């Protein structure tokens, strides 16, 4: 399967997002891939908007089953989000559970005016009623296939497709 170029997907996201940003908008990227996407979007948008980082490790609904990820980092929201339109950003939308956790975390910091979701890849397979407002591409993957965003030492982004181990 040929995977799309993340740079083209980012350009597509910018076109979709730009008309919906307000002067008081803020961006929140979900650690790690969502932060990479957020940084790339900010560079392409050329805007100086407040941004923050969410680490949803403690908000996952499978925390008791999978345990704590060894690289848990604190969330960083260095602005007041009360009453502010928020653009929540992630790399790949799959079951919707990461987004549910991120929204729970956001509301622990305050009540935003709105939350819109932007993802680089919508791969389908939802388990919760979560839908992106903006997406670079929608892909239908087969059972057992996983797509992820990776960044190399030169900060270049690429999509990787893997088969789950049998």
List the helices and strands and how they pair.
Elements: H1 6-17, E1 26-30, H2 33-45, E2 51-54, H3 63-66, E3 85-93, H4 97-109, E4 114-122, E5 134-138, E6 145-151, E7 157-163
* Count of separate structural domains: 1
Cα end-to-end separation: 20 Å
CATH class: Alpha Beta
Question: What share of residues are in beta strands?
Answer: 25-35%
Helix/strand order: HEHEHEHEEEE
Helix count from the secondary structure assignment: 4
Helix % is: 25-40%
Might you state the CATH topology name?
Answer: Rossmann fold
Largest sheet: 5 strands, parallel
Overall pLDDT confidence: 92
Q: What features would you describe in this structure?
A:
The chain has 166 residues and is of the alpha/beta class. It has one domain: Rossmann fold (3-Layer(aba) Sandwich). It contains four helices and seven strands. It has a five-stranded parallel beta sheet with strand order 2-1-3-4-5. A two-stranded antiparallel sheet has the order 6-7. Helix 2 links the parallel strand 1 and strand 2. Helix 1 crosses helix 2. The two termini are 20 Å apart. The model has no long low-confidence stretch (mean pLDDT 92).
């Amino acid at each position: 399967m040929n995977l799309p170029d993340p740079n083209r997907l980012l350009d597509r996201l910018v076109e979709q997002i730009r008309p919906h940003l307000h002067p008081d908008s803020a961006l929140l990227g979900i650690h790690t891939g969502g932060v990479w996407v957020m940084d790339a979007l900010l560079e392409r948008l050329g805007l100086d908007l407040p941004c923050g980082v969410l680490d949803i490790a403690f908000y996952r609904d499978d925390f008791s089953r999978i345990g704590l990820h060894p690289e848990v980092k604190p969330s960083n929201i260095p602005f007041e989000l009360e009453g502010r339109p928020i653009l929540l950003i992630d790399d790949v939308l799959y079951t919707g559970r990461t987004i549910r956790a991120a929204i729970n975390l956001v509301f622990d910091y305050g009540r935003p005016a709105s939350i819109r979701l932007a993802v680089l890849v919508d791969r389908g397979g939802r388990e919760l009623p979560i839908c992106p407002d903006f997406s670079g591409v929608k892909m239908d993957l087969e059972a057992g296939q996983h797509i992820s965003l990776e960044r190399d030492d030169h900060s270049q982004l690429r999509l990787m497709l893997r088969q789950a181990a049998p």
